[in-house]
Every structure is written in C-alpha cells, then in structure tokens.
Amino acid sequence: MSDLALGLVSFPLLLVLIALRAPIGLAMLAVGAGGLWLVTGSPDMWLAKIKNEAFSTFANYDLSVVPFFLLMGQFATQGGMSRALFRAADALIGHRKGGLAMAAIGACAGFGAICGSSLATAATMGRVALPEMRAAGYAGGLSTAALAAGGTLGILIPPSVVLVIFAILTEQNIARLFAAAIVPGLLAMLGYMLVVALYLRRHPQAAGTRAAQPWPVRLRAVVQIWQVVAIFVLVVGGIYGGLFSPTEGAAVGAAGVGLMARASLGAGGLRRALLATVETTGMIFFIILGAAVYNGFLGITRVPQELAELIGAWGLTPHAILALILILYLVLGCFMDSLSMILLTIPTFWPIVAGLDFGMEAEATAIWFGILVLIVVEVGLITPPVGLNLFVINAIDETTPMSATWRAVIWFVASDLLRTALIFAVPGIALVML
I want to staple 149 with a disulfide (CB 3.0 to 4.6 A). Which of 118, 337, 395, 412 is the partner? Predict the structure, then answer.
C-alpha cells in the first residue's frame, strides 16, 4: 500500500475508533503514531514527534488563553451568574408565549459572553432553566432543544475557545476574530428566538404562559447582571481596543469574575472551579497533541497536497469549493465534537481556502472563513447522532426522550443553515465590526 493510500485509509479508521467511543485525542494519537510507524518502518519518528510536539505546542504562550477563559467560565458557573442572567431575561420576556424558552436562549448568549464553551453553557443553563420551563408547562422536546441550541452560543459569542484555536492554527488576530463573531452571534440568538415563536405557532400546546412581573421587579433583575456586562466590556473591549493582549484579557477576565463571585464561591466552589478547569484544559491539550501527531502523519503521506491538487483539477469556482468544505463540516459534525474537527481539518483546509480568490484581502478571507467554520461546527453540536449538547441537556432532563429533542431541534438546525447561507452570500455580515 502506498503512503498516500495509507493516509486516505486512516480517516475512516479514525471514524471507526470514534464510533467505538475511543477518546478522540487518543484515537488521533494512535492512528497518527501507527501510520508514522508504518510509513517510516520505525517507531523513532512518532516518538520524537510526541516529544517535540508536546513541548513546542504546550509551551506556546498563546495557548495559555484557553485555561484562563475556561477558569472565567467556571467562576461564573460556581458563582451563580447564570441564574442572574436567566432571571433578568425571564423578568423581561418570560410572560410572553414562548418567552421562557426565549429567555433561556438570551441567558445562554449572555453566559457565552463570559464562558467560551458550548458544553459548559448548555449544562449550566440547563440546570437553571429546565426546572422553570417544565414547571411552566413547556413540552420536554421544546425545552431541551431550545437549551441545546442556546448552548451553542457559548462558542459563537466571544470570547470563544474554538476561535482562539482557529486563530492560532491560521496565525490570525484573535481580537479581530472575536469582533467578527459578535454580529453572527447576535443573529444566532435572534434566529433561535424566532424559531421558538414559529414552533409554537405550529405546536401551541408546547408552552404555557404566566403573569408578567411588575416593572420594579424587572428593573432589579436587569440591574443584577451588571457584572456580566462589565466583564464582557472589559475583556472583549479591552482586547479589541488594544488595552490587553488576548492572554492578558483572559487573565483579567478570570480574576475579575473570581473577585465578583467570591462571596458565592466559597472554598468548595473555588476548588470545583479549579478542578474543572484543569480537567477540561487537560482534555483540550491532549486533543491538540493527538491532532498534531495525526496531521504530521497526513503531511508525510501528502494527503493535504494531493487533496488540494485534486480540488484544483475539478475547475470549480472558489465559492463552490468553500461550499463543499462547509458541507463536509456538517457531515463530520454528526460524528465529532467542534474542537476535534477544527484541529483535524484546518491544517488541511485552510491552505486550500487561502489559495482561492474571493475578491477580498487575505485577512478578511481568513476571518470570514473562520466565522463560517465556527457556525457549521456549532451546528454539529445539535445534530444527531453525536450532538454533544443534546446529550448534555437530556442527561439533565431524563424524562424527555431523545427522539422528542431530535424532532424539535431540527427547527433550530434549519435556522443555523439559513444563517450560514446568509453569511456565505454576504461576507460583510461577519466583517462589519472590523
């Protein structure tokens, strides 16, 4: 078997391992290491690569932004900021038809502004909002689907861990990517709220109503989220305005949220926040190491180069090639998580996209591509059979069958696809804040 054939066979093998529930980082590491051994006939290369990649990757100063953003999200979770966000959104629109689901989506967007992780956003807001929604007469499918979709805002509303990794892989400016994600993130939130309204026109029995709260109560609830607004402005505004580097901004944000939440944290909450941050950071860094080894194997077998030449020989327009890449991401999203997809595919796809002419400057093309990729990997979090957000929410609400969640979440997936098509056709939506 030729080296190229070996590289091509490795991908379905990787999917098989993932389907067998092997940890994704371990699966990529095993396939990459085994492939390098077969190609070179010796274990020396993959052993040397693991040693060199582990040091060069984890010593990268830019990657320190990841644990800081994760710690900021954990402090916010343990400090009860998620509950304050939901109460404020509920006070404003919870009395309307479908308002409680819309409030949960709005709270997810607010929490995403200080978290950066979709799974953490979905899990945290699920624990806060699901009991309230079910008590108000909301159907299980609508409740779980709305929260699973709302959770995806955790990686779309800046700061976003996935955008940080994309920026590092493509050598782009993190602050400009954060700025570009703001408008698409707000469009996603509004689109999900519109989906709730349309869903209830078709299924009016899926949600109950309750009395509106007095205006003084609403105003007090809104005032209580000043901390979230302040942290978002400080971190994202500071990074975009050049006051902080992304790493410094993440550190300032983590410290700021920790100080604001210190009364609610306590010693137990601080310990849980630190442990959860360490565990998640270790998982992310192991996936990064596995992806580095696997991508090294693909590079030595010339799979990316051959793929680029094959696509070029088809004679397709740049937009057609980009559309095919986005469709492939949608397919991969049915089997893989967002971070793994980014780490696995960007080293192959980005050089292809960078070589295409979209009539824009190179940086604008990179940012537009990054936002499109972020949206389509976000869709993967709520598409069966491995939509991770769906499993997170259904683990919280065990009384709702997964099939009911799948039927309702299709409406939110349709909103995502429409938004992707809109930004694909009108790049200025993603570039307006630059």
Answer: 412
